[in-house]
Amino acid sequence: MTKQEIIKEAYGDTNYEMLKSNISESGWVSENVVKRSNFNSLEFDVRTNSMRPLKLKGLETNNGWNSILSESDLPNDENILYHYYDIRVKNRMLALNVKLGSFSCDELKNLYLADICTHYRKVDIIEPPFF
Known about the structure:
By secondary structure, the protein is of the alpha+beta class. It is 19% helix and 27% strand. 16% of the residues are buried.
């Protein structure tokens, strides 16, 4: 799905059509344009003078995932490990494949070249407790 399709789905067809000229690239709309009472079925993420459906939280950062559209989008820091995510439509069905193992840059590149992954993100190292 494209970013615009995700925004449209979050608002719902009717709401989206009514508001589309006022919706920002990140899905925000001014509270002056819309009153929450008109959208009882939606939960909202609210910031100063703006709101959007809660489903869009994290849209600006793609929830921390980096899209791989070409080989130049691959990471190059060999000291960091990565997760990968494969999201694509196969036979009209959305196919999701998340691998939360630790993969090096070279392994990620091989997965991309083998047409196995579409996104990656850095593995967050969790420090052990002190006590």
